[in-house]
Amino acid sequence: MDIKKVYNSKSVEEVIDLLGEYGKKAKVIAGGTDIVIALNKNVIEPEILIDISKIEELKGIREEDEYITIGSTTTFAEVVESQIFENNLYGLHKACKMVGSPQIRNKGTIGGNIANGSPAADSVPPLMALDSIVTLKSIDGIREISLEDYYLNPIKEKELLINIRFKRPKDNQILTFAKLGLRKALAISRLTLSSYIEFEDKTIDSIRVASGALAKFPMREKEVEDYLLGKSLEEKTIEGAIEVLRNSMDERLKGRSTLPYKRVAISTILREILEEALAIEEGVKAW
Amino acid sequence: MVNINFTVNGKPYEISIDENMRLIDVLRDELGLIGTKEGCGEGECGACTIIMDGETVNSCLVMGFQADGSNIVTIEGLEKDGQLHPVQRAYMEAGAVQCGFCIPGMVLSTKALLDKNPSPSDEEIREGISGNLCRCTGYNKMLIATKKAIEYMKGE
Known about the structure:
The structure holds two protein chains of two kinds.
Chain A: E1 5-8, H1 12-22, E2 26-29, H2 35-40, E3 48-51, E4 61-64, E5 67-71, H3 76-81, H4 90-97, H5 102-107, H6 110-115, H7 124-129, E6 133-138, E7 141-146, H8 147-150, E8 160-167, E9 173-180, E10 191-200, E11 203-212, E12 219-220, H9 222-228, H10 235-252, H11 259-281
Parallel strand pairs in A: 1-3, 2-3
Antiparallel strand pairs in A: 4-5, 5-8, 6-7, 6-8, 9-10, 10-11, 11-12
Helix pairs in contact in A: 9-10, 10-11
Chain B: E1 2-8, E2 11-17, H1 23-30, E3 49-52, E4 55-58, E5 71-73, H2 86-94, H3 103-116, H4 122-128, H5 140-155
Parallel strand pairs in B: 1-5
Antiparallel strand pairs in B: 1-2, 3-4, 3-5
């Protein structure tokens, strides 16, 4: 590490000015759970470090009109403790609850999970399945981009990730999540899936499916979505969806040593999110 | 160098630190609080766990300057008037300590859990210490120790 100057910033404006002035010489730090490792191993060598974890404007979860907005420095623990992510939004609670360990969840942030760009970021597939919008700010102005497109056009060196928002789901719209890790705690995801399904009885009226650790970054699984749309969620539908996802994976992960394993493992994970969605919809399973 | 003001184990400090220091470096090298251990340095093992503003954090993943304005408890801060904290006493009595390297972090995770949830279930106890790796005990002794600590704290 060769950090020359550090800032405990108190406002978004101050951060944006600093990023505008220093550009790639500066790095933003919030929870630190990824970046401090990179700093300590000299994987990145910024001269300026700007702490944003004490800026009020970036903290917390707000419900406004039809949207739920999560400030970028909201921690995983805060999402887990929030009453908002119950019942039909349980998928995001479940994803955040499975991140790392209590210590990591107390510090790690939703904004950091997105900005760090890991393919295995646990909170991203559910946020993507919710069709979330990311807001970034720089001296040049505000940029809003859907989380799905974000990975093709990620955060730039002068930008600060402000928040992420999505439309509050109705009672018949259900978010679920499932993760395959190598153990219960402190596991980097090998495979994650999240689905957002609108039911009309057992029929899937609209659907979004997002995956983690199945590509260079989290992504929508459109072929599975197309297959499931309009179908009744029963055993043969689930089996069919597993085959469709396997075919997409065969093309995408061709030649990868993990493919044979992930091909088998995907069936349990996809089954879990679909069956859980149905159970929540039918009120069989409380969140 | 950067100036920081913070409270550690109830004592206020105003010190000047190197910008490159992590919080664990500040605690160990500047304040001499070497009860906090560095294991993996990557947030996997939890040996460096401290309580910061009421929450457990890995002090190897926090930069020193970020601690400005915070209230920190390390393992050295648990003892009161020469008496061990109930969690420390319970760990000793249950034989939950073998090599001892993970214990400062493990004890602080247990304390933080009981501060928030005075009567946790077995599952909640295991979840509460899931960020602290121990290669000696197999964790069952920690579970027994925590249950003892719960009884001691109820009696206080």
